[in-house]
Amino acid sequence: MEVTIERILPGGLGLGHAEGRTIMVALAAAGDRVRIRVERIKGNVSFASIEEIVTPSPHRVEPPCPYFGRCGGCDFQQMNYQTQLDAKAEIVRDCLRRLAGIENIPDFQITAAPNPWHYRSRAQWQYDPVRQRLGYFESGSRNVCDVADCAVLAPQLQSTLERLRARMMSGSLPEARDFRAVLGDQGVSISPAVDGEVADITRTIHGDSYRFNAESFFQANDGLLPQLIEAAIGEVKGETALELYSGVGLFTLPLGRRFARVIGVESDHRAAEFARANLAGAGLTNAEVVTRDVGVWLDDVKRHDLSRVSEKSAKALQDQIGLVLLDPPRAGAESRVIAGVLGLQPRRISYVSCDPATLARDLKKLIAGGYQIASISAFDMFPQTHHVETVVHLMFEATGEGVIANN
Ligand SMILES: C[S@@+](CC[C@H](N)C(=O)[O-])C[C@H]1O[C@@H](n2cnc3c(N)ncnc32)[C@H](O)[C@@H]1O
Questions:
Q1: How far is Cα 143 from Cα 67, in angstroms, rounded to an integer?
Q2: Which atom belonging to ligand 1 lies closest to the Cα atom of 330?
Q3: Substitution candidate for ligand 1 out of 209, 245, 337 with most atoms within 8 A of CB
Q4: I want to staple 33 with a disulfide (CB 3.0 to 4.6 A). Which of 38, 54, 146, 242 is the partner?
Q5: Strand pairing category for 259-266 and 287-291
Q6: Quick one: pLDDT at residue 197?
Q7: pTM for the structure as a whole
C-alpha cells in the first residue's frame, strides 16, 4: 500500500490516509510518498513502517546515525533541522487545539538548540549482560540495541559509554539493568557506581551552581537552559512563589532571587537535599524545600492542615501566591494537583512541560478554573527526537491583565 505523509503527529508518527483508513507511519517526513508495511491495527488506525520511499519529501535528509531505525532513541533524524522545529511547533499547537480545546492559540516561537548533535548531558544506557549489549532499547521493544557511538551524546558521555563498553568486553562491568550517567563541570557521575561511590557533580548554569548526581533528575540539554529558566520565570517578582516538582532546584535558585519567599515541593528526598544544599550554596535563606508528594502536600494545604507544613511555609501560604511554577514529569500533574493549584488561586501559573499532550490535558482544567494563557514558548531541548519542552504562562482572568506579556 502507498501513502502520502500529510503531517507529523504528537508522538512523532507521520499521518496518512489510504483505502479509507488512517495510517500512522514511523520515521516519516511530511511530503514523503511511501510504500508501507502495516505492523499493527487498532480500530480504524493502521500503524506502519516504511518499506520503500517512493518519492522523498523535500525536507528529508539521510539520517547520519548507523543505528537509526533500529535504536529507539531518535525518531526525527530523517528530517532537516528546520523541519524538525516546524513539526514540533505543530505538535504543540495540535495538542492545544485538540486536547485542550483552545481555539485562539497565541503565536509562539520554538527556540532552536544551539547544538542539534552531541548535546545530551544526561543518558540512560540499557545493559543486556547475556547478549553483551549496551545501548538503548530498540524502538517498540525491550531488546537492547548495542550502540558503540551515539550521535546525540555530549563527547564526555560518549567517552563514558566507551569506558563502560570496554568493561563489558573485559567482563568487569557490574551487573545492572541500566546505567545512568550525567555530566558535570568537571566529570561524570554514573549510577550504579562502576568504581567506588556514585559521585556528586556540580554543574554551573546561568551563573548558579547545582550539585547533584546521576540518581537525581536534571535537564538533559544544557545548551538551552538559561533561556528555559528565563522563560519559566520571566520578569515576575513578588512576595511568594510556590514551585512544584522542584528537583535539585534548577528554578528554585532564580526564584529565590526574585521572590521574598519560595516554597519548593519535591518527593525525591535526595533531590530535595541537593536543592537545600544548592540554595545554601547560593546564600538563599528565603526558600524552603519540602520533601513530599505534591498531591499529598496540596491536600494538606487545602484542608488547612498546616501542622505538617513548616511554620515558614504556613505563613507564606496565608498571603496570595504570586506565582506557582510547576514542572511535572512526562505524565503531567495529577487531577488533585491541578485542583490544589486552583484552590490556591495564584496570580500567575508557569507550567513547564516535556509532554505537550499531558500539558494540554492539564491546561484545559486550569482554563476551566478561571485562568487564561498569557504566553507560550517552546524549546528544542531534544533535537533528533519528537520531544519538545514547552512553557506556558497563565494568568487569573479576574486580573484583566494583558494576554501576551511574559511578565
Ligand atoms: C521534570 S522533573 C523537574 C525537576 C526540576 N524542575 C528541574 O528542571 O530540574 C520532575 C521532578 O518531579 C519529581 N516528582 C515526580 N513526581 C512527584 C510527585 N508526585 N511529587 C513531588 N515530586 C515529584 C521528580 O523527582 C523530579 O525531580
A1: 14
A2: 1
A3: 245
A4: 54
A5: parallel
A6: 85
A7: 0.94
